[in-house]
Amino acid sequence: MEEPSTAQPLILQYYNRLINMRLLSQVVVSDKQGKTILCCFGEPQPSRSDADSELSGGGGNDGEEDMPIESNVVLSGVSTFQMLDQLHLGAPKYISAQYRDTVVVQTMDDTVMLTLIGHRSQGHFVGGLLALLPQMKSNRAYEDLINQVKACFAY
């Protein structure tokens, strides 16, 4: 079995920190086909009842109820980027979408698509997610992750 790369734990810590600061709700990094490379929901903050149940041996729910998987959002973004590529319209810097309460910003870097997900009810909006993109893309761990994915597609 392969050892985990060093880029993933660093990038997970970075994305989880942004989520825990409530700057966004979820980050998904996927390849051009929409296969998830990593997905961050933030580190679950134990509530008072979770802490009590862990002390009594209950184990808590590990925050699974609060972690929806947004695979349909990722696949929708992938198909949009693919369609624009097939029509030779050029790739946009980003695409944005809104699904009820959810706001989404997606960007494609060579072989990696970065999806930022927020919720209007939590104060997130497209402009705020767009403001995070340059900072997130300039992170060294993100660059390492892109290089690792490129290496996988090179073979």
TrEMBL record:
<feature type="region of interest" description="Disordered">
    <location>
        <begin position="41"/>
        <end position="68"/>
    </location>
</feature>
<dbReference type="GO" id="GO:0032006">
    <property type="term" value="P:regulation of TOR signaling"/>
</dbReference>
<protein>
    <submittedName>
        <fullName>Uncharacterized protein</fullName>
    </submittedName>
</protein>
<dbReference type="Pfam" id="PF08923">
    <property type="entry name" value="MAPKK1_Int"/>
</dbReference>
<dbReference type="InterPro" id="IPR015019">
    <property type="entry name" value="LAMTOR3"/>
</dbReference>
